Amino acid sequence: MLSVAEAQRLVLERALPLPARVMPLSPDVLGLILAEDVVSDLDMPPFDKAMMDGYAVRAHDLPDGRAVLSVVEEVTAGQMPRLRVGAGQATRIMTGAPLPAGADAVVQVEHTSPSDENHVRIEGRPVRPGVNVLARGQEMRRGDVVLATSKRLGPQDLGILATVGRTSARLHSPARVAVLCTGDEIVEPGETPAVGHIRNGNGPMLAAQVRRAGGEACYLGIARDELDSLRAKVAEGLRSQVLVLSGGVSAGKLDLVPQVLGELGVQPHFHKVAMKPGKPAFFGTQGDTLVFGLPGNPVSAFVCFELFVRPAIRRLRNHPATIPGTVRAALSEDFAYRTDRPTYHPAWLDHSADGPWQVRAVPWFGSPDLLGLSRANALLYIPPGDNQFQAGHACEVLPVDEPS
Ligand code: AMP
Ligand code: MG
Fold it and tell me: What is the best residue among 195, 297, 305, 374 to mutate for testing ligand 1's pocket, by most ligand atoms within 8 Å of CB?
């Protein structure tokens, strides 16, 4: 059976970055990847700028930090000074205001006291040129590349884009990901399930995973376990860049998804991966559309999404780190687990502990146990075998609570 790493390789071989387009800037673009070098259109700050409320002075007048200076004018942020500061003079200045000509330092107001109406007494430490002044262009110069292509946009980058006058930028588009659930027994969350029915937990979960991976989820509803219902919904889903199906890929009598995908021209690349949970996972393509058939058991669907769909969505949006990284962590307690396949066990990863990261398997009875998974923030990798791990044993862990 195919290993998880081989299956990931087959997926990534077929997931190609989507073309970039110019998008208006808003919080909606957070996390998208830049597809251009962003150049500053100005020096920042655009003028020598006071960094304190106080007095703009000539350092030369204050070799020992003491003097009485005559105050020639007052400048607040947004105003331009009119007068030059000459020998023995100062300008009252507020944070953010341009430094007047002649001045080369600012003495903060706490080190001053009014002497008379037109004079100020300075009683501070010796003043050197440049003190409390942000020189023009100190942060960036006109023409500088301030954000390089491939940068993943964080809130601070949106601040920089605004600073250099950008209201739009060339960004890699997020993938449109259709989510389709299957099963005669599945009803929507707002309904009361009849006997033999259960609510659709996977639809909302998978749509949220899509969003967290940086894709745009489009929920297509529930297809029944019969060919016509499946065909219609799958055909709709194949118009997206990625189609994620839940259920119907195992060996049951009504597991019709692989057959319908085949009829609609989806070329299979794998069906079954050596992993637990999630063994029946299917992956195929139709043209450029990536199609994932995830097993219906909620934890199987979740784990297969994290291992296969999430990297694909990241590749499509040109994320520099396609496969989310694992970390090494020490078991905080003894843990015995026997398994015939590589297993991804819900676990709690403790980031806050001093020293090495600690991990603990959470109680979990298997692929239907979504509640067990909801108490986890990571998946603990367990190799096949009759494992008897002692506390302190170093394990590989995949965090699953991180933003993309
Ligand atoms: P399947 O993969 O279709 O054989 O489904 C495997 C198990 O997962 C069955 O017990 C289903 O009832 C359950 N299941 C399938 N789809 C969903 C869903 N959307 N939400 C919650 N459980 C599901
Ligand atoms: Mg089913």
Answer: 297
- Show contacts of 333-338: CB within 8 Å, 24+ apart: 333/360, 333/391, 334/388, 334/389, 334/390, 334/391, 335/360, 335/361, 335/387, 335/389, 335/393, 336/387, 336/388, 336/389, 337/361, 337/382, 337/387, 337/389, 338/385, 338/386, 338/387
From residue 163, alpha-carbon distances to 26, 39, 42, 152 in Å are 14, 11, 9, 18
Q: Nearest CA to 60 among 87, 83, 84, 93?
A: 87
- Closest ligand by atom to 245 CA: 1
Successive 10-residue mean pLDDT values, the chain, 404 residues? 98 97 97 97 98 98 95 98 98 98 97 95 93 97 98 97 98 97 98 98 98 97 97 98 98 96 98 98 98 98 98 96 92 97 97 83 98 98 98 96 76
d(CA 51, CA 133) in angstroms, rounded, equals 6
User: Residue 335 in 3-state DSSP?
Assistant: strand
What's the token pair of residue 212?
């967290």
Instruction: Report how far apart, in Å, the C-alpha atoms of 188 and of each of 125, 194, 219, 221, 234 are.
Output: 72, 12, 12, 8, 19
Reported pTM: 0.90
Alpha-carbon dihedral angle through residues 105, 109, 111, 114, given to the nearest 10 degrees: 110
Residue 258 near ligand 1, beta carbon < 6 Å: no
Measured in Å, residue 298 CA sits from the centre of ligand 1 at 7
| Gap between the terminal Cα atoms of the chain | 30
Nearest CA-CA partner of 284 in 234, 326, 211: 234
CB 312 within 8 A of CB 304: no
CA distances from 142 to 45, 136, 146, 161 (A): 10, 11, 10, 13
Residue to mutate (ligand 1; options 246, 299, 371, 373; most atoms within 8 A of CB) = 246
